[in-house]
Design brief:
Belongs to the peptidase M76 family. By secondary structure, the chain is mainly alpha-helical. The protein contains 13 helices and three strands. The protein has helices at 3-8, 17-20, 29-34, 36-50, 52-63, 70-73, 104-124, 132-145, 151-156, 165-181, 186-201, 214-225, 227-232; strands spanning 74-77, 85-88, 93-97. It has a three-stranded mixed sheet with strand order 1-3-2. Helix 4 packs across helix 5.
C-alpha cells in the first residue's frame, strides 16, 4: 500500500461515527435506561457472566496482565449499519454497536470476536495500523475461534458444508473484515490472508482447540480454569 493510500485510510473509524468525531457522548440516566444503550449494557453483562467463550478470554487476559473491566474496556455506541462491533487499539476499547445487536446470541459472538482481538493486542503487541499481516492474522483467529463459522450459524446463513467449509468461512469472513476497515483492493487483501492463513488458523490460543460450539467452549474453559491445579500436582 502506497504512502498516499495510507494517509487517506481512516482505518475503519468512519464505521463508528461517535468515535470518529472524537467526542464520546455522555448519556443521561433516562437515555441509558430506556434506549438501545441500556439493552446493550444488559446483554454485555450477561455475555461476560455466562458465555464460556467470553469467560475463558477474560480469564486469559487477566492471567496475561491485561485485566478487562466492563466500564473501561467496552463501549456501547451507534455505528454504521454494516458492522456489529470493533476493537479500537488506540484506546484498548471494544465498541459494541447497540443499534445493530438485538439478540443475546449475537452479542455473545461479537463480544467473543472482539475479545480475541483484545487478547492478541495484549499478548502479541499487534501493529494494527502499519502491519497488514498482523491485522489479517487476528481477523483469521477471530473468525476461527469466536463461533462466527459454527455449523449452526452457517446453516442460518444458508451456507452448507462443502469440503473444508469451516476454513473457507474463516477465510471469507476475515477477508470481509479487512476490506471493511482498510482501503485496499480485494486482490491485495486475499494475498495477505493467504500468506498467513495456515499459521494463524492453527493458532488456537487461549482455547487450545477450535471451539466449534458452546459445548466445546465449555470444555475449553473448564480446562483453562483447571490448568493451575494440574501443574500444581506435577
Amino acid at each position: 500500500m502506497g504512502q498516499t493510500e495510507q494517509q487517506e485510510d481512516d482505518y475503519g473509524y468512519n464505521l463508528f461515527p461517535e468515535r470518529n468525531s472524537g467526542k464520546f457522548q455522555k448519556r443521561s440516566i433516562a437515555e441509558s435506561l430506556f434506549t438501545f444503550n441500556h439493552k446493550c449494557q444488559v446483554m454485555l453483562q450477561f455475555a461476560m457472566e455466562t458465555s464460556p467463550y467470553a469467560k475463558l478470554l477474560l480469564g486469559a487476559m487477566k492471567s496475561s496482565g491485561c485485566a478487562v473491566y466492563k466500564d473501561r474496556h467496552f463501549s456501547c455506541e451507534d455505528c454504521d449499519g454494516t458492522v456489529s462491533g470493533g476493537f479500537d487499539a488506540t484506546s484498548s476499547q471494544i465498541v459494541l454497536c447497540q443499534n445493530n445487536i438485538h439478540q443475546q446470541s449475537h452479542m455473545n459472538r461479537v463480544v467473543t470476536h472482539e475479545l480475541i482481538h483484545a487478547f492478541d493486542h495484549c499478548r502479541a503487541h499487534v501493529d494494527w495500523f502499519n502491519n497488514f499481516k498482523h491485522l489479517a492474522c487476528s481477523e483469521i483467529r477471530a473468525a476461527n475461534l469466536s463461533g462466527d463459522c459454527s455449523f449452526h450459524n452457517e446453516v442460518s446463513r444458508f451456507n452448507f458444508g462443502l469440503k473444508k467449509h469451516h476454513q473457507e468461512c474463516v477465510r471469507g469472513r476475515a477477508l470481509r473484515s479487512i476490506l471493511a476497515v482498510r482501503k485496499v483492493s480485494r486482490e491485495e487483501a486475499e494475498k495477505v490472508v493467504d500468506e498467513v492463513f495456515d499459521t494463524c488458523f492453527n493458532d488456537h490460543a487461549p482455547f487450545g482447540r477450535i471451539p466449534h460450539d458452546k459445548k466445546d467452549a465449555k470444555f475449553a474453559n473448564r480446562d483453562f480454569e483447571n490448568r493451575d491445579r494440574y501443574y500444581a500436582n506435577l
